[in-house]
Amino acid sequence: MGVRVAVAGASGYAGGELLRLIAGHPGLDLVAATGDSSAGRAVTDLHPHLATLAGVPLRPTAPEEFADAELVFLALPHGHSAALAAALPAGVKVVDLGADHRLVDPADWHRYYPGEHAGRWTYGLPELPGQRAAIAAADRVAATGCYVVASTLPLAPLIAAGVADPDDVVVVAASGTSGAGRSPKPHLLGSEVLNDVSAYKVGTHQHTPEIKQATGARSLSFTPLLAPMPRGILATVTARPTGTAGAGEVRQVLAEAYADEPFVSLLPDGTWPHTAATFGSNGCQLQITIDADAGRIVAVSAIDNLGKGAAGQAVQCANLMLGLPETAGLTANGVAP
Amino acid sequence: MGVRVAVAGASGYAGGELLRLIAGHPGLDLVAATGDSSAGRAVTDLHPHLATLAGVPLRPTAPEEFADAELVFLALPHGHSAALAAALPAGVKVVDLGADHRLVDPADWHRYYPGEHAGRWTYGLPELPGQRAAIAAADRVAATGCYVVASTLPLAPLIAAGVADPDDVVVVAASGTSGAGRSPKPHLLGSEVLNDVSAYKVGTHQHTPEIKQATGARSLSFTPLLAPMPRGILATVTARPTGTAGAGEVRQVLAEAYADEPFVSLLPDGTWPHTAATFGSNGCQLQITIDADAGRIVAVSAIDNLGKGAAGQAVQCANLMLGLPETAGLTANGVAP
Amino acid sequence: MGVRVAVAGASGYAGGELLRLIAGHPGLDLVAATGDSSAGRAVTDLHPHLATLAGVPLRPTAPEEFADAELVFLALPHGHSAALAAALPAGVKVVDLGADHRLVDPADWHRYYPGEHAGRWTYGLPELPGQRAAIAAADRVAATGCYVVASTLPLAPLIAAGVADPDDVVVVAASGTSGAGRSPKPHLLGSEVLNDVSAYKVGTHQHTPEIKQATGARSLSFTPLLAPMPRGILATVTARPTGTAGAGEVRQVLAEAYADEPFVSLLPDGTWPHTAATFGSNGCQLQITIDADAGRIVAVSAIDNLGKGAAGQAVQCANLMLGLPETAGLTANGVAP
Amino acid sequence: MGVRVAVAGASGYAGGELLRLIAGHPGLDLVAATGDSSAGRAVTDLHPHLATLAGVPLRPTAPEEFADAELVFLALPHGHSAALAAALPAGVKVVDLGADHRLVDPADWHRYYPGEHAGRWTYGLPELPGQRAAIAAADRVAATGCYVVASTLPLAPLIAAGVADPDDVVVVAASGTSGAGRSPKPHLLGSEVLNDVSAYKVGTHQHTPEIKQATGARSLSFTPLLAPMPRGILATVTARPTGTAGAGEVRQVLAEAYADEPFVSLLPDGTWPHTAATFGSNGCQLQITIDADAGRIVAVSAIDNLGKGAAGQAVQCANLMLGLPETAGLTANGVAP
């Protein structure tokens, strides 16, 4: 008998990935999966890849559906988490995959999202200093945004160590299409995304303040790209080095930061990350160099936006909150080719 | 402590998938991974997605490398399995992913492959009647060809039940590029396969006799296609109905054949298989209908060519041979989207 | 000064391809492009690839918009062509890319389409015997369905020559996503079609009667597949040989049928068609063999579903109707890789 | 009768695109196509999409093969252009698609390429101030590198106008796989590039000095990415604004620079470039903004790496050199979807 968990908002891509991870998790039992517009439909109608859930129906997203759950994952549209969380029984732990409880500064929320700011929860990025213990002690955790994970893992240690200038950071990050969600919008059709890389929300993406908050960057130029693949984020992070640290030294900062991390791999020198290597996993690949001519540190990261960028991260947090092994039900091994 | 297993030929795609499955298997421990031309290189140099194997080197494919193994998976080029198998210590169990020991009739071997016929081993398709027990009792098992699995699971029960005519079978099956292997041939470049579907080896593919042997088809037109995706096979199998069985009755044949099978899903009526739903899994999706106007049964199957079509199948056989739960380390759930 | 042409229904993919071909055509001038739900929007808002049409707006699809046109292309949803055609000024020539006027037998129409049968127009496949002259003499032409072109070019000559049995034809054809149109349906999202091949409308596709009509097949099993590419159809057509004709003789039938055709290429023996080779073109690649063991002719064709399968075909017909060189504004050369 | 042209190095992707453009060009006649390792093979064996060249063989790359040519395109590996150019008959015009004659400073050559520096030719980017006339007057033109075009078109006018700081430029550019050439390297297999975006040659790409030379940038951090599509480059170019110019003013710089350019489109405000919109064309899409918070200009460009990035550019230069209309045989319209 595992811990009883539920997924609110199980019809989307992050919700589906949560269901997949829970189905393969040795310590979690799914007791409810909900979706408002999909209530009554079979899980496999929406997620035909989840063969082991054949016969399981989606329930409406109502508080009473979660009565049996010890922990609830919220994979709801932005702005819907607070109300549901407030209506859950006392003692139920919650991991929110939405943006509602990530931002410290309400002004950041109001600039990018509609509605009221719901207040901050413990930030669900275990690899940040101190966060692993904080998550383990929390009942409410706000899991990270996908671009934020990809940007923060390479950058935060560099700023914290004082080797990267927080005042001149440029991030260009290419995402697979599942990051744009499952609403059938014309520009997300296969006919449109095949053969195509494009930029969008240049300088205006809602993850911008969260990246700054999580990394300590004070000035950030952030350009997201859409790439013709279903999953994956490749982030190119550049910043000016401070002082005289060379390539070996900045590399050493990352090596030390992640020496004991089960999901973060600093690749051998000269080998650069590939999103395909993280497909379906909770892993993150990193590499870093200094371009001496340009006077810039260049760090590159790869994650699966639905894995370490969303559902994998959420399960990792849940494992910590529940006292399970942190890696239970997760893997750093991607599905490739 | 799990059962000690080794992989001979770990540098290719099937070998890499074996390593991935073994790394996530609760009852198997990897004791050796070998590759002739890649000996000495790191596993992660060839398979950067296998983060948990960082630091593990590939060894040469020599008999002494398998001294500690209780079971060896052979993922070698065709024609190399017999010699290595003969040189392994007595008592070592073997699962061969190559074609060497699949065919009953030496004439079939000689028509499609060079060199001597190595003789038949127990055929590794557990879902065939009687094969599950035979595999469990065997020390040497020949796992199935990828197109053969995709063709046999929908067709064999129909011929066995006498509802499909074995004398007029047409199979057209589209495969992802990993099925063509890892040798860098010009026509397999990304630039060539993107935007492209093509036919190849029309009427001459080496899996043709194996499909006939496994299904009981006496006349088979088999056309393989190459599709722009890394994994997956979608097989369209058509045959003339015999007698007066209708769509409901032929569907019932498949429903009964696979009612208790953990990896084979007959989809709800009207829902057709998608390769994406089997990506990274050991699952198979099936659907069937009768086209009354055309006078043909049309059955469609989807598998992952590296999963149920190769490494997953091999692990399923190994589980049976070792007395482990048949589903250990495997899942029917694909990684999608 | 070229011939004045207009496109009704210019917002979809076939309409966009018509605009692209007209823009590059030395003998045609675009005088109007219309789209009901898109009226008022810029052409480049819907088709950002059509840089030379910057500043051109879409007009509503109303008869008066076509007052200046000498020929109108109709790329409307099925069932809308007849009413508009009837309202056009006398003397305006019309090429319809929809299904409305293709079928001879009203029963075929009623089985697959809603609404009344609009009656048959001259069938727009110039490579069929006699059709080139018929099209040149016609004022109303019904261009072909995409799967129909891909199936008919390899098959029709074989049945006409008496070398293929019309009573046992099996076609499996894989199409790129643009064939499914531009309506934002969930199953057409990039996230869904990437990594995926699937079958759909098995035995029930609306092109089935048109293929039979155009080829002379009396029994046809037709299975369409959706492949992860934006354009292209690869059709595998198999039929039983009649009499004793061998591979060389059936090949000769196609060689003679298309010896002088500018857009149809019978490939060198042993080379099989690739959709990528027809991308963006009006070309068709063919290859054929006899699988002696299976007792089946297997012919394979590749086209661009938006080219020879839709807009290219329509322009070829228009060239004939207008007395322009048949190849004007068209090419058999694909855009590859 | 058109101008007689030849292609040296016609077996690769840039060579194939040259053949395609020449075949569709109203003013050019192909008199020779050569390829050393492919000499004797049919053009359509290497480029099956070039149906109109059926029957044309590749000749060896020897000076005498070009005796009839008035202009020769060189699409050779780096380092091979100078020797062939020197051996051509006097009076033959040459457009080199290789890097041999692009760089002003021999030190730049020696840092990135082996062998001797061959000396500079007229630089083949007509949209740069003064270059159109220089190209028209030249007998030897060095066409641009693909990443250089994508970086230079958005950036050069900004630096020239003094609105962008040349001392802090960051470019991240994603390329389709054809940019990596046609040699069958393992990492370019379809199985490897599908589902994958990766970075390579970070800070060390050989186009870096050419971008600096063409744009006037003094400090450049350049990170190329490989994306899962056959063609296309999307470049994200960021630089610090100098002075107080706002988004409207920097946009106006590009608007004026390209107001009369047939192949460069500054998109409507708020619309961002898509590589798919330039597929198969000689067009370039641009967009620009200022991210006030980050204090950075962000400009994005899209081209086809084989079009405006290679063969299209070369034909545009040839048109100028030959006194043909600059746009002859070229289009700004992409093939989409």
From TrEMBL, chains A, B, C, D:
Name one process (GO BP) from the record: L-arginine biosynthetic process
Main localisation: cytoplasm
Does NADP show up as a keyword for this record? yes
Catalytic activity from the UniProt record: N-acetyl-L-glutamate 5-semialdehyde + phosphate + NADP(+) = N-acetyl-L-glutamyl 5-phosphate + NADPH + H(+)
The keyword Oxidoreductase belongs to this UniProt entry's keyword annotation: yes
Where found, per UniProt?
Cytoplasm
Q: Which CDD domains match?
A: AGPR_1_actinobacAGPR_like, AGPR_1_C
- Where do the Semialdehyde dehydrogenase NAD-binding domain residues begin and end? 4-136
GO terms for MF:
N-acetyl-gamma-glutamyl-phosphate reductase activity; NAD binding; NADP+ binding
Q: Pathway it acts in?
A: Amino-acid biosynthesis; L-arginine biosynthesis; N(2)-acetyl-L-ornithine from L-glutamate: step 3/4
Q: Gene Ontology cellular component?
A: cytoplasm
So what EC number does this one have? 1.2.1.38
The UniProt keyword set, sorted, is: Amino-acid biosynthesis, Arginine biosynthesis, Cytoplasm, NADP, Oxidoreductase
Q: Where is the active site?
A: C146
Q: Which family does it belong to?
A: Belongs to the NAGSA dehydrogenase family. Type 1 subfamily.
| Physiological role | Catalyzes the NADPH-dependent reduction of N-acetyl-5-glutamyl phosphate to yield N-acetyl-L-glutamate 5-semialdehyde.
Protein name (Swiss-Prot/TrEMBL): N-acetyl-gamma-glutamyl-phosphate reductase
Give the originating organism.
Actinocatenispora sera
